[in-house]
Amino acid sequence: MTIENLSSNKSFDGWHKQYRHQSDSLGCAMRFAIYLPPQVSNGQRVPVLYWLSGLTCTDENFMNKAGAHRVAAELGIAIVAPDTSPRGEDIPDDDSYDLGQGAGFYVNASESPWNQHYHMYDYVLNELPALIESVFPVTDQRSIAGHSMGGHGALVLALRNSDRYQSVSAFSPISNPVNCPWGKKAFTAYLGKDTSRWADYDASMLLRESRRFVPALVDQGDADNFLTEQLHPEALMTAAEITNYPLELNFRQGYDHSYYFISSFIESHLRFHQKHLFKE
Ligand SMILES: N[C@@H](CCC(=O)N[C@@H](CS)C(=O)NCC(=O)O)C(=O)O
User: Fold this and answer.
1) pLDDT digits (tens, 9 = 90+) for 92-116
2) Probe ligand 1: pick from 56, 64, 174, max atoms within 8 Å of CB?
3) Is residue 29 within 8 Å of residue 88, measured between CB atoms?
4) Which among 52, 53, 57 is the best mutation to test ligand 1's pocket, defined by most ligand atoms within 8 Å of the CB?
5) What are the C-alpha distances in Å from 190 to residues 93, 118, 194, 221, 272?
6) pLDDT tens per residue, range 205-236
7) What ipTM goes with this model?
8) Residue 242 Cα to ligand 1 middle (Å)
9) Where along the chain do its domains lie?
10) Multiple choice CATH, 3-277, 3.30.70.20, 3.10.100.10, 3.40.50.720, 3.40.50.1820
């Protein structure tokens, strides 16, 4: 397995690095970013938080804008940020920002032309952690977090794989994609018109059925311009009430959908994950 280092920058006594590798599950070259906290320089292995970004993002948005390195350095947590879809000239795409490259929705597509490459669910669940754990000084303790489309991805991956993640958190997640325009458009294209096949990728529906709980934290700005039409956190809240799910959902007054919101609360998310990542 070869991976190519593209950049290295010292940050808060740790390192931010970007890599490219050939992905088997996606059938293309993929880029990811990793923040390695200073503890790894002392020979320690550290747990990993996977961060899934939203529509139009690459591996760079979170690392550049969230301001997460200082607290990750203090807590001794590595952060891995993959790209949001397969990419390249030979990879199917769409002119709109919410489908195709930059909009993989963390699903395994079953429909042509997407089904050959759009397997972000498998990539994030299996291929990427296997690569990270074989190359970097990390433990097998993982948590997962994300924003918007990535918040949807993080919740779905954790709810379906409670044995793989210690905790999950999300900012402004697409909480009930089967009932919003972004989700309906993406799921119709990637999964087909048969809506019964969409439930496996809907956090609110999965949460209603969940039996094994991964501790979950969600923050949502009440001035988010996507809140009413696209995000539907109330569906998540109702599902959590039905199953008594350990979900903390905070509405944050005046905050919008941007990385200004994420950077304002990322510290509390990292400290939430720390409690679960360092449990024996
Ligand atoms: N229509 C908007 C939607 C995209 C959007 O808001 N993306 C969010 C995630 S859903 C984001 O993180 N954008 C990149 C950034 O703020 O760095 C656009 O194209 O800018």
Assistant:
1) 999 999 999 999 999 999 999 999 9
2) 56
3) yes
4) 57
5) 12, 8, 11, 29, 33
6) 999 998 889 999 999 999 999 999 999 999 99
7) 0.93
8) 32
9) 3-277
10) 3.40.50.1820
